[in-house]
Each structure stands twice: as C-alpha cells, then as structure tokens.
Design a protein that fits this description.
Helices cover 71% and strands 3% of the residues. It is mainly alpha-helical.
C-alpha cells in the first residue's frame, strides 16, 4: 500500500516539473491557503459573542492612521531609497500644508479628507507648475 503512495507522489512530482512547477512551491501554496482558511474561520466557531480587551480596542482605533503614516512618510521623505537633499521639494511643503489644515480643524469632521485635499492643492501647482 505504501509503495503505491510513493509511486503516486513520484509521478505527481514528475508531472509538476514537466509543467514547470516546483512541488515544494505548490505544497507551500496549499498549506498557506489552508492556514489562511483556518485562521479566518476562528471567527465563525464560537457560539457566543466575544469582545476584545479594552487595550486591543484602543490599539485598533489608531491602526488606520498608523498604516497610512507607514505608507505616506517614506513617500514624502525618500527619493529612490535616499533621503531628500533639499528643502525645495513640493512634497515637504504639501505635507506642512496638510498638517496645518489638520491641526486647524483639530481632527474634527472630515479632517483626513480635508488634509489630503489641502496637501494636494499645494503639491500639484508646485510640482507641475514649478517643477519641484
């Protein structure tokens, strides 16, 4: 019985290689898919509603702004992986304008959308018009 399984796996490995697929990569994809399915299904398993601890809820409150900062800050201060060398950069001026708008609004209302609009209103003329 075991010889049959070994022969089948050997055949499968040869077939995958003929197709240009690495068996280890395929097994990795299948296991990662299974792991993702199991991790996501934990939310459907409990019979009762569960709540997050207070510290986790407080941490999730800041998650969107932390993710946005992690994406935006490198784009503002880096060019091709190097820190910018001059202050005549439209991104810095636009970032300052966006920050001023946000603090002027005190974070209330549509502050994030207004921050983006204020920053782009300053950035586009400087970048496209002056070539900064």
């Amino acid at each position: 019985m075991t010889d049959g399984w070994i022969a089948w796996f050997a055949f499968l490995s040869q077939w995958l290689q003929a197709q240009g697929l690495d068996p280890h990569t395929l097994v990795t994809f299948v296991l990662m898919g299974f792991l993702t399915m199991v991790a996501r299904s934990f939310f459907f398993i409990p019979d009762t509603e569960w709540t997050l601890p207070r510290w986790a809820e407080r941490g999730l409150y800041y998650a969107p702004i932390a993710a946005l900062t992690a994406v935006v800050v490198p784009e503002v201060v880096l060019t091709r992986g190097q820190f910018i060398q001059t202050w005549e950069d439209a991104r810095l001026v636009a970032m300052a304008a966006g920050a001023l708008y946000f603090f002027w609004r005190k974070g209330q209302g549509q502050a994030v959308l207004g921050t983006i609009v204020a920053g782009m209103t300053v950035y586009l003329p400087l970048h496209l018009g002056l070539g900064w």
